[in-house]
Amino acid sequence: MYSQGLIGADGSTHEDAAFLEAFQKRVDAELKIEPNDPMPAGYRKTLVRQIAQHAHSEIVGMLPEGNWITRAPTLRRKAALLAKVQDEGGHGLYLYSAAETLGVSREELVDQLLSGKAKYSSIFNYPAITWADIGTIGWLVDGAAIMNQIPLCRCSFGPYARAMIRVCKEESFHQRQGYEIMLTLCKGSEEQKAMAQDALDRWWWPSLMMFGPHDADSTHSDQSMAWKIKRFTNDELRQKFIDATVPQAEFLGLTMPDPDLKWNEQKGGYDHGEIDWDEFWRVVKGDGICNRDRMKARRKAHDDNAWVREAALAYAEKTAARETAVAAE
Amino acid sequence: MPNADLKPETLFKYVLRLADDQLILGQRLGEWCGHAPTLEEELALANIGLDLLGQARSLYSYAGEIEGKGRGEDDLAFLRPEREYLNALLVEQPNGDFAVTIVRQVFHAAFMVPFWRAMTASSDETLAAIAAKSLKEVEYHLRHSSEWLIRLGDGTQESHRRSQDALEELWGYASELFEMDALAEEILDCGIAVDAAALKAEWDATVNAVLERAALTRPADSWSQSGGRSGRHSEHLGHILSELQYMQRTYPGLSW
């Protein structure tokens, strides 16, 4: 989904050729770039944008799953979902921290999200309607996220790469948990199987869109590849995801909602039908079914609780003033 | 079971009361997901909710064993109607603003810390073991919620007003925690239960100390409500259960 973080990213930079060449040499030697190292302004800007979008996605992604915490069907599932959503929040925290090492504050980033200036993954603008959606989100959405994030563990920017190592471990646990929910449904009653199929029907195409536009339409991709922010193209990652996921669906006894999906012996992968890019751009631009609800929920949490954050700040200031007064005595 | 005279259904009910308190409060905290004041607090509320849910699960499983009718944690949580739910009224009160949630948590944790500590000495080994694990958890809940209440009380004028309002709103629900009825007394006599009434002094001391640091005023004991322990609830519980039990009620008898 974090390929979407590069949509519209402006990697243009103004350093002289010698600086850029020296930087590229470090990147090509697979040396990690650390926060205090010299780096092109375009590199910094691209990373802030991508890491922030990744963080925002984790935070907004808590909403569709949070929608099921109070209604999970068993206590075991409730505990697992609560723990999972807590993990997502934790990922948001590391990612905001990784972005902060690039000289931007969390407040600024959150303001960008709330003002609509910053985006988050399009996938979270789809509703989690039934319990099977929770299984499908784990299986497909976390599955697609892992495909994107495993190469990010080797991203040239050190703090992002290191955050991704931990994030990937947790995501792969979530993915297995989601698949296990699907397996339970598919072994269950006709109603449960239908619920699983319906969720797959609704989430399959949006999951493929998580990888971003086709390579031919993906601007600024080359620069990110050269800087090793990105290691594979959108289409390469999408292909890997499809090839890994189709057999999993077969094992569940579910049908992929794509009549054109078939194995291509020659390329050693699946061919698939055309993605509805109109829908993709509609959702990215804010007109998906849940875009408005998601933003409303985030803004409400922020605004309604402003007094809490103000109280914490006022208390910290009072405490500091008291300590100074005591020290002065 | 340490005492042959003690009827299993008596102990069953006692354990259910305890389980229901933790489940319902955990469910309330789960409602905060995605809506908390800060990201750190989002994680803390989910974490506390998860602890409570874990405690409830151990207690329900044990209650099911005591009952001996083959009911497990999910049967007890999802298939009992509201009149059979035995939680204290405090934990079913709505989240309100963050001050209400924090005051509710302080009241609950300030009670559960001495409760679980006393329960570690129970002659019932299962309850003693659950108590030992839960004690560590609620000590953190108490620290967390107290530190927040101090910040809210001694923060801004608005946060002070909101937390004083929250105290007044919930004060009357605290006394139910200390009630000892015939059932609780019977189990206390067997060396299993905790004398909840005896915990009031420690609760008072804990809460008073927090209120003092928070520059908040302890409300007068002018009203109190109870009934939860015998299944007489406020109107809130029915709505909690309609969400909690939705799946099991809509699709009875399936595995999830």
In short:
The complex is a heterodimer of chains A (329) and B (256). Chain A has 329 residues and is mainly alpha-helical.
Write a concise keyword list for the protein shown above.
heterodimer, A: 329 residues, mainly alpha, two-stranded antiparallel sheet, 13 helices, 2 strands, globular, B: 256 residues, Ferritin, 11 helices
Termini of chain A, distance in Å?
A: 57 Å
Order of helices and strands of chain A: HHHHHHHHHHEEHHH
Whole-number mean pLDDT of chain B: 97
CATH classification, class level of chain B: Mainly Alpha
Poorly predicted ranges of chain B: none
User: What kind of assembly state do the chains in view correspond to?
Assistant: heterodimer
Can you give a write-up of this model?
The complex is a heterodimer of chains A (329) and B (256). With 329 residues, chain A is mostly helical. Chain A has helices at 17-28, 41-60, 62-66, 75-100, 106-115, 131-152, 158-186, 190-209, 221-226, 234-252, 277-284, 291-304, 306-328; strands at 262-264, 269-271. Chain A has 13 helices and 2 strands. Chain A is globular and about 75 Å long. The termini of chain A are far apart. Chain B has one domain: Ferritin. Chain B is mostly helical and 256 residues long. Chain B contains 11 helices and no strands. The longest helix of chain B is centred in the N-terminal third of the chain and has 29 residues, at 39-67. The radius of gyration of chain B is 18 Å and the shape is globular. Classes of the chains: A mainly alpha (329), B mainly alpha (256). At the A-B interface, helix 3, helix 4, helix 7, helix 12 and helix 13 of A face helix 1, helix 2, helix 3, helix 6 and helix 7 of B.
